[in-house]
Design brief:
Elements: H1 2-14, E1 19-22, E2 25-28, E3 60-75, E4 80-92, E5 103-106, E6 119-122, E7 124-129, E8 137-142, E9 146-158, E10 170-179, E11 187-191, E12 198-199, E13 209-223, E14 226-239, H2 242-259, H3 270-293, H4 304-352, H5 356-381, H6 392-411, H7 417-444
Parallel strand pairs: 3-11, 3-12
Antiparallel strand pairs: 1-2, 3-4, 4-9, 5-8, 6-10, 7-9, 8-9, 10-14, 13-14
Helix pairs in contact: 2-3, 2-4, 3-4, 4-7
Amino acid sequence: MFCRYFCFLSLCLLLPTQRRCSLGHVSDLRGSDTTSLPGFENLTMGYNKYLRPYFGGEPVQIAMSLDIASISSISESDMDYTATIYLRQRWTDPRLVFHGNKSFTLDARLVELLWVPDTYIVESKRSFLHDVTVGNRLIRLFSNGTILYALRITTTVACNMDLSKYPMDTQTCRLQLESWGYDENDVIFTWLRGNNSVHGIEKLRLSQYTVERYYTLVSKSQQETGSYPRLILQFELRRNVLYFILETYVPSTLLVMLSWVSFWITLDSVPARTCIGVTTVLSMTTLMIGSRNSLSKTNCFIKAIDVYLGICFSFIFGALVEYAVAHYSSSQKCVAKGPQEGSANELTKEMDSVNITNILNSSITGYQRKISFTSIEISSDNVNCSDLTMKTHEKIKCVLRNKMHRIIGYFTIQNPSNVDHYSKLLFPLFFMLVNVFYWAYYLYF
């Protein structure tokens, strides 16, 4: 009996749209607006695809399930992801009940003769239904009037991302299904088996991410035209940081360590120390530019990787400045020692040409003069500001002058070689402390 029905079904698909098969005869439907499903005796007449099941009564229960076939790309610059999904919807239409306990898979083109839900993907930018070699749709009819409607869809969905912790970030994305025109008084959306309604997402292998967890939600969307049912699949994606450690973090750290080599080179080796400093600065600049170009459209974010590269650049630049300070202090000290060494040489020549008595007399006289000059310098540097004959503004100037001399004395480098000695310890120590705070903050807070 059913073979006969399906033979007429095939004949109907070959006839023009103005004519329709109905249980062994062809009827002219030019003046009729009602549609009927051919091949079933109790479904040929009185079925209107423009009216939902239970029209004017209780809402239609629509149960959904998803298979995630793939997530092909996740774009940080465009803040979206592209996924291919199998969407399955089930509902019951009492107008399609037939005798028996079997189910029949119908031609997908017969969906044009049935009422189907107006489900759409919220926040979808681009979507299409696969149609090779035919439209990837499935219609299965059960004897109790239940309809299974399956689609294969590829969609690009927006996903708002917080890239402040990039590349140690975890992103939360959503796939939301909602009714476009029917509100909650007409249709009710439910997940078929709760979290078990979603399959395939735990088996995905993504290039930069790992699926941490996922869960399903049932919600409502309150619009001006009414309250609409909504189903939500929410999943968390954790970025794999190992690639970025090998690509960016390790090279930048090695450049910082390379800049410390200059601390073991003497101050007189100007070309060597200058070459190391300039080379590391330029290399670090190139690394920073390459890192920012990989996410050219998200430069408004201050990312974790930008913070680390900025720290490394600061240490490298600091090592170059350290040599400039040490070399300048060394040259100033040499200039100050120059006249003293010259006078000492002249004094040696004069001592060779006089006798022992003259040597003793000249030594005593020079020592007395030195003591008198030292006392004058000390008194000039630390002038007694408590003199009663001094005026008030002179006392204030005197106090400020003494304090300035003390402050300048604190920052005066007595031995330039000690700058390199302290830098060998302080630069690595501070860099390690900064790294501890950096990784602790971005990994655990």
